[in-house]
Write a structure and sequence with these properties.
With 270 residues, the protein is α+β, with helices and mostly antiparallel strands. It has seven helices and ten strands. Helix content is 36%, strand content 21%.
Length: 270
């Protein structure tokens, strides 16, 4: 039986002197091609797992917010994923987008895609994010037919990093229940105090909007005067981390405003 073409080709390659440039090139090219195929195949195979892990981490952070709230055990008995409704919202209109699955939607990736994102005008980009996705996920924690929590993903520039977190509002779409950041690289011992339980606990009960529906929620430059008319909207500034505090204020006011979840929350209230 005659040799197959592939065997002839391999035999000729083996018979070439090792110092021939052609053999060196062919071997190097083949090794590179195989390595590239292995890396590409691995990336494709692992992507669903990576997406699933990312979604599970987000879900764990959301449930962690709920589980930390005073009285939540009495309210929900146990907080489970079934208590959380996930939706995707068109930010400009405040309407739900039924054709997008919140489990598959990646807001960060969408913000980088000009086809599904918008550039924020500089005068309105107080959060320093430059672009935002046209759509964003929202999470509703329910008890029967009642909506107890509205959980919104928020992000924006701090002092040395971008802060990513969740803002939880009560069913009135105005009273803050919790604010937590799950990713940032602020200065340890200073800006990183946004993670401290003492500082996070100050947010509970604050009001996002005033009676004229102006966004007022934020961080004061110093401890808030109990007699100040802003006491219902502001938490104490972080000592030595003024820039981080300003970043938190700006990102909250952006996402609660017209370029963020403002249209959605206004519809929710009405």
């Amino acid at each position: 039986m005659p040799d197959r073409p592939s065997e002839n080709w391999l035999q000729r390659l083996r018979d070439m002197p090792n110092d021939r440039p052609a053999k060196t090139f062919i071997v190097a090219f083949t090794v590179s091609l195989v390595c590239a195929l292995v890396v590409s195949t691995t990336a494709v195979l692992l992507k669903p797992l990576q997406l699933a892990n990312r979604e599970r981490e987000r879900q764990e952070h959301i449930l962690a917010i709920v589980e930390r709230l005073p009285g939540v055990k009495e309210l929900f008995a146990t907080v489970e994923a079934r208590d959380v409704e996930a939706h995707v919202v068109e930010l400009s209109t405040g309407n739900y987008v039924r054709v997008l699955d919140p489990a598959d939607y990646d807001q960060r990736a969408a913000a980088k895609d000009p086809q599904v994102s918008i550039e924020i005008p500089a005068k309105h980009d107080i959060a320093g994010i430059k672009r935002r996705a046209r759509y964003a996920p929202v999470y509703l924690v329910t008890r029967g037919d009642d909506i107890k929590l509205i959980i919104l993903p928020v992000h924006g520039s701090g002092y040395v990093s971008t802060l990513y977190g969740f803002l939880a509002l009560a069913g009135d779409a105005n009273t803050v229940v919790a604010l937590t950041f799950y990713e940032h690289a602020e200065t340890p011992g200073m800006g990183a105090q946004v993670d401290s339980e003492e500082w996070r606990s100050q947010w509970q009960g604050k009001k996002a909007y005033d009676e004229q529906r102006r966004v007022r929620l934020g961080v004061a430059l110093r401890p808030v005067n109990p007699a100040s008319p802003d006491v219902s909207h502001l938490v104490d500034g972080i000592t030595g981390a003024t820039r981080t505090g300003e970043g938190v204020s700006n990102l909250l006011r952006f996402w609660l405003g017209e370029y963020g979840f403002g249209p959605y929350l206004e519809k929710f209230q009405s």
